[in-house]
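Project outcomes to date are best conveyed with an example. Our students and postdoctoral researchers have been running inverse folding experiments weekly, and each run begins with a structure described purely in C-alpha cells. The record below, which covers 151 residues, was selected by the lab manager from last quarter's runs and is presented without edits.
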C-alpha cells in the first residue's frame, strides 16, 4: 500500500513546508551551536609573523610621577613613570575579579575601586584581596616614544 496523496496541491504544500521547516531548523541549530562554540573555544588573536605585538606612545604623554591609561590591543593598560629612570606598563585589569584599577596620585599607587585592592607602581599587591600582581609588559624608549611590547 502506498501513501501517495491524490491531491497534487497538498503534496506541493507538504513539500514546501518540509523544506521550510528544514531550512529554519538548520538556522536555529547553527544559531545556537555557533555562539556556544565561540564561548567554549574562543578565537585567538592573530599576531604578526614571528614576534610579539608592540605599540608606541609619545614619551611626553606620560609625565614623570604620573600614569596614563591606554588600550594596548584592546586591553586596558596603564603606563607609569615613577621617576626619570623607571617606566612601567601594566595591565589595568585587577587580578581579583577583573575591575579596572585607578591611579592614585596622592600616594602613587593603583587602587581597585571594587574591593579595595592596592598595587604598587610595579604591579605588586600591597593590599586587599587580589591574589596576584598585575600583568606587566616590557617597555623601552626609542626616539622619544615608549614602545610597549607583550612579554
Ligand atoms: S576586583 Fe579588584 S579588588 Fe576585587
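After processing, the design step wrote out the following sequence:
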Amino acid at each position: 500500500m502506498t501513501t501517495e496523496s491524490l491531491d497534487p496541491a497538498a503534496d506541493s504544500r507538504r513539500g514546501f513546508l518540509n523544506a521550510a521547516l528544514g531550512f529554519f531548523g538548520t538556522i536555529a541549530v547553527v544559531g545556537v551551536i555557533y555562539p556556544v562554540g565561540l564561548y567554549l573555544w574562543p578565537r585567538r588573536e592573530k599576531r604578526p609573523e614571528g614576534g610579539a605585538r608592540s605599540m608606541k606612545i609619545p614619551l611626553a604623554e606620560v609625565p614623570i610621577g604620573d600614569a596614563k591609561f591606554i588600550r594596548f590591543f584592546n586591553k586596558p593598560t596603564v603606563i607609569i613613570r615613577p621617576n626619570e629612570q623607571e617606566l612601567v606598563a601594566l595591565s589595568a585589569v585587577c587580578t581579583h575579579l577583573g575591575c579596572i584599577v585607578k591611579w592614585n596620585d596622592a600616594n602613587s599607587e593603583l587602587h581597585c575601586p571594587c574591593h579595595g585592592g592596592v598595587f604598587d607602581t610595579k604591579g605588586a599587591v600591597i593590599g586587599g584581596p587580589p591574589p596576584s600582581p598585575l600583568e606587566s609588559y616590557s617597555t623601552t624608549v626609542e626616539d622619544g616614544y615608549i614602545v610597549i611590547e607583550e612579554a
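The domain at 54-149 is CATH 2.102.10.10 (Rieske Iron-sulfur Protein). The longest helix spans residues 8-40. The training component of this project remains on track.
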